User: What shape does this take?
Amino acid sequence: MATVAELNSGHTPTWCPGCGDFGILAALKGALAKLNVPPEDIVIVSGIGCGSKIPHFIKTYGFESLHGRSLPPATGIHLANDRLRVIAIGGDGDGCGIGMGHLVHTMRRNLNICYIVQDNEIYGLTTGQTSPTTKKGTKTRSTPNGSIEQEINPPLIALAAGATFVARGFAGDVAHLTGLIEQGISHRGVSFIDIFQPCVSWRKDLPYSLYQSKVYKLEEAGHDTTNFDAAIDRARETERWPIGVFYKIDKPIYTDEIPFIKEKPLVSQDISNVDISKFVEEFL
Amino acid sequence: MGMLFAKCMQRAGLNVFGTNDYPSLIKGGHNTYALSASDEQINSLLGKPDMLVALDQPTIKLHLKCLSPGGALIYDSNKVKDDDVAGGRTDIFHVGAPFTEMATKAGGEIMFNTVALGAAVGVLGMDFSIVEGLLRRIWEKKGDAVVQQNIAAAKAGFDYSRSELKTPFKVKIEPVKRDKTMFINGNEAVVVGAVKAGCKFVAEYPMSPSSSILHLMAGHERDYGIIVKQTEDELSAVHMIAGASFAGARSMTATSGGGFSLMTEALGMMGMMELPCVIINSQRCGPSTGLPTYTEQADLLFSLHASQGEFPRVVVAPGDQAECYAETVNAFNIAELVQAPVIILLDKYLSESSKTTEDFRKLPMKVERGRLLSDSDMEKAEGFKRYAFNEDGISPRCLPGQKNGLHVSSSYEHDETGFSSEDPGMRIAMINKRAKKLSAIPEELIAPSFHGAMQSQAEILLVCWGSTKGAAIDSLRFLTKHGIAARVMHLRYAEPFPSKRVLSALTSAKNTLIIEGNSNAQMREHILKKTGYYIEKAYLRYDGRPFIAKEIAEHVKTILKK
Assistant: This one.
């Protein structure tokens, strides 16, 4: 219920010119504008990193947490008031490095929140160290002889952990990404969106043109998004890089099994004078 | 069995204090439950036991020597050989009943402890109806057959000890008529307090000795509409409650020192974001895994200083079960009043010791939500600034979902709107703003409590904090017998600290002694920092075991050279 212009916070992003985060910001605002939700009912929760500054540039409620911790506060906000739309967002280091434990557990809970990973395969804000998604062999400031470790594949992790919506987008294709984010937020259950995000400062070897030459759209390739095995196969592809929805199924969500928030979320329940008699009697 | 026996004493109208001791094992090992019961007020274990109930042989070996002369040893003659029993003691009663056999006859071997319960109550000359009533209440959910079997098992033990005792036992329990009390431990009292305070969200990772808070809360999740979430780790638990608090739900987590160590990053974030949260740290012996099921008071300075940078936090250490209840309600109110984290310091001893306590419903506790703005306040709000500067540093707070309040709460330093700022002037202003907030907490609320002799009469002031309160107060009765007039000052709040009152009490005392459960006298150091007064003498315990009133009295006697 807010236009893209109304979602502008008035603060100018401090990202490097050409950063993939600009495309992600545009797509996120575009998706929010398409959804019929007033901005006060939206909370964007981020971690720490270049991309995690994003809540400051969108006029909704925001929570800029600590490095790797976007998902637990997002969970707390959602469970305290499940009428809000909660979007968690952070980088690949944030989500797949320090925050990996939370990623896996948030996916398996099928909470009704959307989690976006700004995946540029590098630590940007700390000036260019290897990240969990940096491909093996890549030279970075912390791996001058080439990274020795096998990289992590975020969509594959999300699928294995039980996410009910898994997608990948590309910051260089804003229109397509906007659609993905809109679908992710609208999905009833947890949604996971990994975004190819060019880092113009620290990954000059991964320019927009390389992504553009490698990516293809799953929806144009006849992919069946309800087929888990097919989703796994697509997520494992390395020659060409699929973008779009890998997997989407409907399953009961976490809050479906909490009867006492059906009528009112926790935050709206009256706590002014709780009767403790039931408890006290156990100890009499 | 110990707990049920304690509840029989409670039902007889006595004051009861009970505590357990067990190793860090799932099953087995040597487990004991010790209790004192009296028609006088008691706050800890007192004196030598008059009765020892042994369900296995090691119990006799370990504890028979403590039994008072004329005391009763009750044991399972199916498990303990006759030659093992006497231990050279001829000054005690022996009630050796075939508990296991009697239990099998009543319906199941598993009830051998119910037989022992009946036998113990029988020795004390109590009416069987007290046991019967209790067993009915405990087992009613399992159906009448289970109730009847348990009653039969208890009755068998009861009748056996009645017939065995040729002369009456030295202790006879006469029921006392009085208002019903609660028999409750520290963790349970905290949970009831949290429920009263309107806590709506609990996230916790299991860790002894805090886990029973998780269990009890989870068991009542649907009764009180509280979401109880077991998380993947303590990081997640503490960050979840930060999120829930930001959204407007009163939120809490509980852990022990190891988990609290993981939570420190979030503590600073709550400080920076000015989020009201309640964190319970039930201390156990550290460092590291330490002695998981034993008690210590060694996380005081850690709690006061945990996390990088400077920000206000509240640290409160309740001294008994009633304070666990009241201070938990206060903690939620204070957290919202000053928009900061509140740490409640318990320890294994307080968490798991039960005491008969006045019905909590008689304590007047209220929910006060501080400067939380309502929907109608926000409807007409203009130019809302979440971190607006004002006189006491506490800015009105709005919640997501409310109109006209859009803002970001950030872990970065920020300006009044919440937008990140590295401006030096703004930095100073924000540090000073946050630092002012604790002054809003009323002085009476954080005041220490005094017990025993008047200030002018006391030869010595015993200074204690947290769970040491009970043993310190109970030491007064032994000191009186030694002709020593003593006064106890019990501190609950470490931050904010009642400096003026503490300094005045210390400077006007003839002698002072600090009593605490750590090796560095951490509260002494804190008092020195806050008041400039150094308490020279310290009585410290750090063997994992709780303070004993009589031992405190002996120590005081020694230092006063009496």
Summary: Chain A has nine helices and eight strands. The radius of gyration of chain A is 20 Å. Residues 20-256 of chain A form a domain with the Rossmann fold fold (CATH 3.40.50.970).
